[in-house]
Structure to design on (57 residues):
């Protein structure tokens, strides 16, 4: 893997980590159970994407 490709993956990892954190914070703040559940699902999806990207390194 080239250094440029590694930089792209590193950047994507940072984005996924940020999005996961944002979704988790939203889920904690939301009162509506459906929205809370949806935000939690999004956080889990971002965590899975992070793990998949991390395995590429």
């Amino acid at each position: 893997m080239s250094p440029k490709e590694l930089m792209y993956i590193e950047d994507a990892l940072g984005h996924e980590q940020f999005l996961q954190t944002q979704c988790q914070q939203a889920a904690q703040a939301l009162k509506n159970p459906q929205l809370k559940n949806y935000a939690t699902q999004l956080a889990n999806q971002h965590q899975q994407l992070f793990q998949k990207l991390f395995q590429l390194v």
User: Anything to note?
Assistant: Residues 3-56 form one domain.
